[in-house]
């Protein structure tokens, strides 16, 4: 009986580790997609941008694998308490990472389009913004693997930095569009890119909040948004 219990526990641990690995692989691909899309934007490289678009199917496939494994574990293992929270969190996180991959793909598509227009100065904010969101994703997933609630809270707190970047870029692009009609098209594309990065920051924060719940059993209640562009005139 003891041997059977040990076997069951080891088998469950193997499944948990596999689920964590799938989520981590998705996160790594998301980080690479964001970085490569922004590099393509700054290098004005349409081929590199479209290569990012083509890799999105890998993230979709990993999400499907994670979903199948999570559902199977719930059906066959009947996990409870912290184990169930971790599986449910992994299931939700994989869906969020798939959405982050979609945002990175959208950035790459607009980066490809922008190679046909003249570069404008506010684009320099984009790499700074992308570095912050990539770090947020990486730290949120590290917190997931380590079940580290404190690191998850730190990720949530960094979302305000992404919002500040977006607010600053939004105002700069509005000025550019008002000063010269020729700047409207590239400014609009950059604005969408910045919004995609801002949404990625939100999703990284969502992941961190799920990690916090998985580790503590409590919902994180300290999040504050600082995007004030809705009130810009």
Q: Can you tell me the number of structural domains? A: 1
Q: Report on the biggest sheet.
A: none
The helix fraction, in percent, is: over 70%
How large is the share of residues in beta strands? under 5%
CATH homologous superfamily grouping:
Phosphate transport system protein phou homolog 2, domain 2
Mean pLDDT value:
89
Shape type: elongated
Count of helices?
7
Overall description:
With 233 residues, the chain is mainly alpha-helical. It is built from 7 helices and no strands. The chain has helices at residues 2-43, 46-54, 56-77, 81-114, 125-146, 149-179, 184-216. The chain has one domain (2-231): Methane Monooxygenase Hydroxylase, Chain G, domain 1, CATH 1.20.58.220. Helix 1 (2-43) packs antiparallel against helix 5 (125-146) and helix 6 packs antiparallel against helix 7.
Q: Key terms for this structure?
A:
Methane Monooxygenase Hydroxylase, Chain G, domain 1; disordered N terminus; 83% helix; mainly alpha; elongated; 233 residues
Topology:
Blueprint: H1 2-43, H2 46-54, H3 56-77, H4 81-114, H5 125-146, H6 149-179, H7 184-216
Helix pairs in contact: 1-2, 1-3, 1-4, 1-5, 2-4, 3-4, 4-7, 5-6, 5-7, 6-7
Brief summary:
By secondary structure, the protein is mostly helical. It is built from 7 helices and no strands.
